[in-house]
Amino acid sequence: MEKVWTDSELTSSEAKQRPTDENDERWLFANSYYPGRSAEFQIRYREYFMPSRSSLTTHGTAYLYDRQVPIVFMMPGETPARHDSSIATADIAPTIAGLLGVPLPDGVDGENRVSRFSSSPVE
């Protein structure tokens, strides 16, 4: 084990805020923690460790190597381009909504990343 967080550490308002240090994963655990349903503590295993006795994989870890994946948007009128900056998987739906000109309801996770593209919303 690399780190263990308790119920009180995960339910504080500070824990749910996205940190400036992208290696601080506590907020990921805090935002997936559900009091009363989740265990009373959450475990972050050491890097590259799989808590399984079989050769199967899991859904990934909180480490950057599991959280950063390539994403491709193809749109009419866009010039192919590569952007090396990171976006979160939670940004995909708000970005597609932004490209389509669809308003998002309050409280949606993720951010609209349309500004990374040169086109205006599709009409």
Report on the structure:
The protein is α+β, with helices and mostly antiparallel strands and 123 residues long. It folds into two domains: 3-49 and 59-67, no CATH class; 69-123, no CATH class. The chain has four helices and two strands; from the N terminus they run E-H-H-E-H-H. It has helices spanning 7-11, 26-31, 64-67, 92-100, and strands at residues 3-6, 41-44. The protein has a two-stranded antiparallel sheet with strand order 1-2. It is globular and about 50 Å long.
Short description:
With 123 residues, the chain is α+β, with helices and mostly antiparallel strands.
Oligomer: single chain
Contiguous uncertain segments of 5+ residues:
none
Which secondary-structure class do the elements indicate? alpha+beta
Q: Span from first to last CA?
A: 51 Å
Main sheet properties: 2 strands, antiparallel
User: Mean pLDDT, nearest integer?
Assistant: 79
Tally of alpha and pi helices: 4
Radius of gyration: 18 Å
Give, in spatial order, the strands making up the sheet with the most strands: 1-2
Topology summary:
Elements: E1 3-6, H1 7-11, H2 26-31, E2 41-44, H3 64-67, H4 92-100
Antiparallel strand pairs: 1-2
Summarize this structure as a short list of keywords or feature phrases.
123 residues; alpha+beta; two-stranded antiparallel sheet
